[in-house]
MmpS family membrane protein
Amino acid sequence: MNLFTRPVIRVCIAVTAATAALVPAAALASASPSDPTVGDTVRYVFYSDYQSNESLTYFDADNEIQTMENPTLPSDASEKGWYYGSLTLTSRSTYQLAGSSIQTSGYRAACRVYVNDTLVASDSASGRYAVAIC
């Protein structure tokens, strides 16, 4: 490096640092499906071959684990032999966990987790009282 390029590099670094200091931190953040945080949308989708099931678990908007006993899945995709339901929330947690599970009362269970409409986890299981964990 010669003497003429050193000042230019220092000026570029100084301008970048000054710009970063003036922009609010929230504006620098970008939604990442792998690291959901405050304001990100999390959607849990549950599937079962039975409409009434043993249990569902998921992390709510405050990052607390919730369990629903004997949940009923409202929608019927009878052409495929599945019942399904979804739960959508907007995170209020800085470090949002996005995980869920379903235990069927039947023989087939599946789940999917989406963060900002990007699929981040899915699982399926078969067998009596199968459990799918996402």
About this structure: The domain at 41-133 is CATH 2.60.40.2880 (Immunoglobulin-like). The first helix runs from residue 6 to 22.
